[in-house]
Fold Aldo/keto reductase.
Amino acid sequence: MRTRTLGTHGPSVSALGLGCMSMSALYGEADRAESLATIHAALEAGVTLLDTGDFYGMGHNELLINEALRTAPAARREQALTSVKFGALRTVEGGFTGYDGRPAAVKNFVAYSLQRLGTDHIDIYRIARLDPDVPIEETVGTIAELVKAGHVRHIGLSEVGAETIRRAAAVAPISDLQIEYSLISRGIEAEILPVCRELGIGVTAYGVLSRGLISGHWSPDRKLAANDFRGMSPRFTGDNLQHNLDLVETLRGIAAAKDLTVAQTAIAWVLSRGEDIVPLIGARSRERLAESLSAADVTLDHDDLAAIERAVPVDAAAGDRYPANQMAHLDSEK
Ligand SMILES: NC(=O)c1ccc[n+]([C@@H]2O[C@H](COP(=O)([O-])OP(=O)(O)OC[C@H]3O[C@@H](n4cnc5c(N)ncnc54)[C@H](OP(=O)(O)O)[C@@H]3O)[C@@H](O)[C@H]2O)c1
């Protein structure tokens, strides 16, 4: 697996990272044994970046990664870098009630994460969403203290806009911004991506398959569990779904002509957008992982890229990328 460096200040990581979220609820139930096997297969294939959040399954995801790393061969365990999001406040029923970026809360969150991960440091640590009541300088300043203490190696950001990125970068070096970026979510191109490039900040892109919608495997008949985020996503519901799946069919023709799958084409497109971008693959089975990782070897030339962008023009998707109540938490959309 080729590597990419996360910004001027960040670590060198595999060109594709593994996002582990779907292994712990949010997209319905996952198979634990298959999740562990998927993490092992990713490490075996050369993936070094494992992304998680302490709120993914309320600690479940970090414990799963702990188990996967404990049961992996030593060399594979040592190559793994953890990227952890914190700050989300949750309810017993699984709801999200806000975000907490106060210094005391950051120190509390990290202590629990280190314990669950069974490690003495986290490689990249970031608040999942801006806490509107706490200046970003305080949250990032506290993570900078954790870096000094050796509990964290690098500071990341998640779903924040240009002004917040500048303010954060003025406090401490930032390795990467984690944000949604795909053929159908191109909002970062106007302002956020140029600011990251100006400041030497990398991008870890999530939702490169738009949570499965542009994977080429989605079907309108798919039954979703009550707790599956996609059942609430505007892009997966109502008339928007068929509109978006029609875009996928256009893309399928282009992919097939190159002997690629739709998912591989969508991932290769994100990879083609710059050496400073590392897509996070959200696979939770070895089969999906293998399909996605092959995208790392795909080269799209000028004509391919032009055809893809004709098939899926900017702003072609119908529906926002989050439901309205969650859009309100996105500093990146303000
Ligand atoms: N910072 C943030 O705000 C934020 C938000 C969301 C996610 N993330 C991170 O980004 C990671 C990736 O996000 P995501 O899961 O939404 O990404 P994604 O890659 O867009 O979607 C992953 C889903 O697509 C489906 N899929 C179909 N074919 C696939 C293939 N070949 N490879 C992989 N998945 C395929 C799978 O759903 P089925 O298994 O149901 O078929 C899978 O769970 C997460 O795990 C998390 O670590 C960060």
In short: The chain has one domain: 3-333. DSSP finds twelve helices and twelve strands in the chain.
